[in-house]
Amino acid sequence: MREFSEQELVRREKCEKLRELGLDPFGQKFDRKDFAKDLKDKYEEVEHDAFENMEDTATVAGRIMFIRKMGKASFFTIKDRSGSIQVYISINDIGEDAYNLFKSADIGDIVGVHGKVMKTKTGEVTIKCLEYTHLVKALKPLPEKFHGLTDIEERYRRRYVDLIMNDDSKRVAFLRPKIIRCIQNYMDSLGFSEVETPILATLLTGASARPFATHHNAQDLDMYLRIALELPLKRLLVGGMEAVYEIGRVFRNEGMDPKHNPEFTLMEAYLAYSDLEGMMNLTENMFQTIAKEVIGKMTYNFGGYEVNLEGPWKRISMTDAIKEQTGIDFKAEDMNLEKALELAYEHHIEVLEHEKSLGHIINLFFEKYVEETLIQPTFLYGHPIEISPLTKKNPDDPRFVDRFELFISGKEFANAYTELNDPIDQLERFEAQLAERDLGNDEANDIDMDFVEALEYGMPPAGGIGYGIDRLMMLFLEQDSIRDVLLFPTMKEKNRD
Q1: What are phi and psi of 484, to 5 degrees?
Q2: Domain 6-142, CATH 2.40.50.140 — does that match?
Q3: What are 334-346's pLDDT values in tens digits?
Q4: Which of 160, 166, 199, 221 is the most exposed place for a label (fewest CB within 10 A)?
Q5: How far apart (Å, rounded) are the C-alpha atoms in residues 373 and 409?
Q6: Where are the domains of the chain?
Q7: H and E: helices and strands count for the chain
Q8: What is the distance in angstroms between the CA of the first residue and the CA of the last residue of the chain?
Q9: According to the model, what pLDDT value does residue 148 have?
Q10: Which of 179-193, 227-241, 293-307, 482-496 has the lowest average pLDDT?
């Protein structure tokens, strides 16, 4: 049986008294006509004395966040989705019954107010209440005003309370969809079509990740929640759609930390007849468009660094970046697997069995010596073929592929390719992935023969890119944890014993 605190018991008693008065404790429709921020903006510059000759009225609704009772008159503050506004309420204006109803209200209750707009002597825009409407009785008290939800885990777990108490959390919640809409408008302006592709899949393709498994009862079929969007979108290129993108949830059975959540939002885009450079230009312009049109600035504090999104952004190959940091030239004529293994040993880099190739070792050096040094926006290109199974080989050096990653503050923000459209080469890459799985790589791709067959019909040369939308949000909203840009992050099960 649930146990209630003393405050909760008192609130439940008040709830019953409302019923005795013939009032629904949990309210009915209320015809709200105004919002707090709009009223404050409209009357901010109006002088106090000017209100004496004005008869402007407003009708607002929101949650009571503060009450100062003073006998037959009181002040209280209500908060709606736009902000807060003060209300002056007096027994002389609304009558004894309505005023007694107000006096029974608690912080957290939701009410409606109709009244005359005025300004206090201290200059605060205020509504002089003429009609007071009880809407919802809050049965649980809010956290104490100045401390709020101090337990960070509880902030994420009880996001609804966090949004009530924390204006910055609400700011982030409202800005995120505006950024998404800006991205959609930007892509649409370039002629892209936004599409939807299946979330349930029978194969692991499109990325290297461990999946969440499920089962379709009607077909008695084991399935996975998708780990990427790539292959269905590329099938649409084969079908002639030519410029497509999707913003959607993907699911990877991985650990949780400030940068990762098992379910997250990914955006992938594919453009026929484009290439790596086209994806770089698209990306740089998209980030700068968001910065200018939604946030209104080009410099951001992220990951402990000040990041400037003004262009042009740096472009450098993976091997050149490693050479800058270590002096090692992995493109030297005498470089081979044996020498690379020796270098890894000398630099205390562990090489697993499935990583014993020149390409994997190059990537291990990059991760150890370069990744965290890429602070300002940097396009890092020229990845080894071993770590890029879906990417087109570089025509000048087939050991590498036409791929880039965007790094900001030492973190990856995008992954792009000149897409592989050779079905023969693609099948060989898939088979190589299966060989890696046999050596212990449990994130290797399955062979998707339907996709290989699609390529046999002919896919135009294309550029493709994927963006981690949540990490993009972390940058623009200047948040250090992915949990602060997700309304409902995945949480460990709470022990309720």
Answers
A1: -80, -10
A2: yes
A3: 999 999 999 999 9
A4: 160
A5: 8
A6: 6-142, 165-313+376-484
A7: 15, 19
A8: 12
A9: 52
A10: 482-496
pTM value > 0.85:
yes
Rounded Cα distance, 79 and 96, in Å: 25
Residue 306, both tokens = 């000040």
pLDDT in tens, 85-128: 999 999 999 999 999 999 999 999 999 999 999 999 999 999 99
For residue 157, count CB atoms less than 10 angstroms from its CB and return exposed for 0-12, middle for 13-18, buried for 19 or more. Answer: middle
C-alpha 339 chain-centroid distance: 43
Q: How confident is the model at residue 442 (pLDDT cuts 50, 70, 90)?
A: low
Q: Are strands 393-394 and 193-194 parallel, antiparallel or unpaired?
A: unpaired
Q: Is the peptide bond before 312 cis (omega within 30 degrees of 0)?
A: yes
Q: Do 417 and 387 contact (CB within 8 A), yes or no?
A: no
Q: What angle do CA 467, 318, 286 make, to 5 degrees?
A: 30
Q: Which CATH number fits domain 165-313+376-484: 3.40.50.720, 3.30.930.10, 3.40.50.1820, 3.40.50.300?
A: 3.30.930.10
Return the structure tokens found at 481.
Answer: 């944890």
Q: What is the DSSP letter of 365?
A: H
